[in-house]
Amino acid sequence: VHLQQVLINLVMNAMDAIADAPEERRIIVIAVRAGAASIEIDVRDRGPGIAPEHLPRLFDSFFTTKEEGMGLGLSIARTLVEAQGGRIWAENNADGGAVFHLVLPTGAQE
Question: Do 27 and 45 meet the contact criterion of CB atoms below 8 Å apart?
C-alpha cells in the first residue's frame, strides 16, 4: 500500500508537470528494473523540469511550487521509502523534464 501511494504521488506530480506542455511532450514513462537485491523504478516526464534551486528542497516538508499544494507529498514519499530501507531522489533529464528515481530492497541477498 505504501509503494502504491508513493507511485501515485509521483505520477500525479508528473501529470501536473506536463499539463501545460505541448501535446507531443505530454509523456510520462515509468521504467522498472528488478534485480536480485533491489527494484528500481523511474518516473520520467517531459515537462519543464525542476528549477535547480528547488532540487535540494524537493523532499522537505511544506516545500511546494504549486498554488494549491501543501508540500507534503514528496516528504511523505521519502519517509515511506526510507522506512522500507530504500531511497528516492530527483534530477532533470538531459532532454527536458524530470526523473524521480526510487530504489527499494527486495530482501534478497546478491
Answer: yes
pTM: 0.90
Query: In 3-state terms, what secondary structure has residue 42?
Result: strand
DSSP class of 23: G
Residue 37 neighbours by CB distance under 10 Å: 11
Q: Extract the C-alpha cell encoding 21.
A: 506542455
pLDDT in tens, the chain (110 residues): 788 999 999 999 999 999 998 898 899 999 999 999 999 999 999 999 999 999 999 999 988 888 787 888 999 999 999 999 999 999 999 888 999 999 999 976 54
Q: Which CATH superfamily includes the segment(s) 2-105?
A: Histidine kinase-like ATPase, C-terminal domain (3.30.565.10)
